[in-house]
Structures are given as structure tokens and as C-alpha cells.
Amino acid sequence: MELKNAMKISASGMRAQGERLKTLAENIANADSMAKTPGGDPYRRKVVSFKSELDRATGANLVKAQPPKTDRSDFELKYDPGHPSANADGYVKMPNVKTVIEMADMREAQRTYEANLNVVDSAKQMISRTVDLLRN
């Protein structure tokens, strides 16, 4: 049943984008989280990647979100000698989260989720129409 496979593939895409959205929300929530100790590292951005996974029962390639990995990009330094997290030179490490990038990624994840949801809706409608034709 090809329509069932299409729904299963789209559902896997929706789950993967849901994981991505959860990670993006965590990044945005921690965009201003500073280190607890002077000279320590603040919150480090997390990134989700995807991989293709074969469903042996149906032969369909599903998408799966990998566990989030930390973004190893450099922290931005901000001069604030009075801040409790400032190092000996008066610089504070800022999280490597760029809210504008996170929001753009969130918009992309939302649109991908919605596209997969539309596939599920279309498959359900096609199945329903087929059942209606078989009844008549």
C-alpha cells in the first residue's frame, strides 16, 4: 500500500522536524545564558542533523533526527569588566547563539513540518475517496 508508506515517510519527517524545533527552542531560550564562573564557557549552541534510515518492513527510506551535537564555533567576547563572569582582562564570553539564524532555521523547520503534514492529509483524502468508490 503506497499511500500508507507515503504517510509513514511523512510522519518520520514530522518527528525529525519536531526534534529540530525542540533544539532550536532550547538554543533561543539560552541565547543569553552566561558562564557561572569567571572565564568559564557560556551556553553552547546545539545543532540537529538528519539521516536516512531504511524501514525493512516497507522498504521505505525514513528520516531520523540524530542526537543534537554542540556547535564548536567560537564565542563572541564582550568587554564588561564588572560582570561576574568576566575573565582577568574584563571580557565575558557570550553564547554562540545567533537568534536571527535560529529564527530562520525555525521557519524552515516549520515549513518542512507543514509540507509533510500536507502529504499526510493528501494521502488520507485519497484513501477516503478510494473507499467511497469501492462502496458504490
Walk me through this protein's architecture.
This protein is of the alpha+beta class and 136 residues long. It is elongated and about 80 Å long. Helices cover 48% and strands 18% of the residues. The protein has a two-stranded antiparallel ribbon. It has one domain (2-129). The chain has 2 helices and 6 strands, in the order αββββββα.
Topology of this structure?
Layout (H helix, E strand, L loop, with lengths): L1 H28 L16 E2 L2 E6 L4 E6 L3 E2 L5 E4 L11 E4 L4 H37 L1
Antiparallel strand pairs: 1-4, 2-3, 5-6
Helix pairs in contact: 1-2
Largest sheet: 2 strands, antiparallel
Q: Within the largest sheet, what's the order of strands?
A: 1-4
Taking all Cα atoms into account, the compactness measure Rg is 22 Å
The shape, in one word, is elongated
The N- and C-terminal alpha carbons lie at a distance of 21 Å
Count of separate structural domains = 1
Oligomerization category of the chains in this entry: single chain
| Helicity range | 40-55%
